[in-house]
Amino acid sequence: MTAKLKEQLGYDAPIFAFNHCRDVVVECTRAGGFGVLGSSLFSPEELDQELNWIDRHVGDRSYGVDILMTSNYDESTQKVAGPLADSLPEAQLRFVDEVLAREGVPPLPEEIERERRASMAARERYITREGVRALVDVVWRHPKVKLLVSALGVPPADIIAKTHERGMLVGGVCGAPEHAERQCAAGVDVLVAQGSEAGGHTGTISTMVLVPQVVDVAKGRAAVLAAGGIARGSQMAAAMALGADGVWCGSVWLVTRESDLLPNQKAVLLNYRSQDTIQSRSMTGKPVRMNRSRYTDAWSAAGAPATLAPPMQKVLYEYARSRIDRAQRDDLYSYPVGQVIGMVREETTVREVMLRMQNEYLETLERMGRQTESA
What we know:
Elements: H1 2-9, E1 15-19, H2 22-30, E2 34-38, H3 44-57, E3 63-67, H4 90-102, H5 110-123, H6 132-140, E4 145-150, H7 157-165, E5 169-174, H8 177-186, E6 190-194, E7 200-201, H9 207-218, E8 223-227, H10 233-241, E9 246-249, H11 263-270, E10 277-280, E11 288-291, H12 294-300, H13 312-327, H14 350-374
Parallel strand pairs: 1-2, 1-9, 2-3, 3-4, 4-5, 5-6, 6-8, 8-9
Antiparallel strand pairs: 7-11, 10-11
Helix pairs in contact: 2-3, 3-6, 4-13, 8-9, 10-14
């Protein structure tokens, strides 16, 4: 499967770079890896603009797109005519206002808040089961996209079939063996076995345990990429030894020079240890590994209300984050990030990360070879 996947996607090194920033996607792809653009909260128009830009900058190489095809969300939001922010429950909205007031974070100026709400209203419905179809339609119009990944559930059968008709592979993220079985049964080509160490939406099984289980489930039906806790070549070698066909990395790119995070946001992440990341529902309503902050602490404290189902919790979080960002309150700032952030101590470039990982991978194989010879 490793050779076949390489032939189908056209990369040189089996390093998949997941990121929401188009510059990271392009730089990884141009450096011989395979960039995958995270498209959560893009409108179809915005996604088309991003993909057009990537198309122009990747040359003759291909890349992927990751879409939140969540199967569990608040279906009542489909019946809401206006902005979802207008339908936020009073208890949760009041709680956020009280937390931010207690922390001394002021409301946004009226004009900025109007602009934020308008921007959010244009994007917020494209993370539902039906809304993602408009995003998939955009992806299908870009032939350089060779991999469409569903981040939060099994893709609908018609989307899988039509994606295959266009010569693209379909991927699915899984956090447990049963997730992998459902993805394989649906006809997915690539399984992203994402362990609990990973940033973003995660399950509870660690990567070292999960990957061989998913490999056993795949049994030649799908390629397997290991995700979670991978930022060095030695970790890449371990993943390949477990049977993976490649590695899916996310957190290591967040503090690269090409990343679109603000300088103060990168500084926060660079100062975090591996044990400073937690799993919290405060961002999307589903378990997300992120860096711990005073904001996440508030949601886990006694008396905090229940988190909302997707997409409403994300709408609430974006409201809070906009105020936190404007106030530049690093102690309240949280971002989806995995435990490997504790291994990243300085800003570097995507190309340097790619080169270092590949060199360390080869050095690890050589060291293991010497150990075998002396055994």
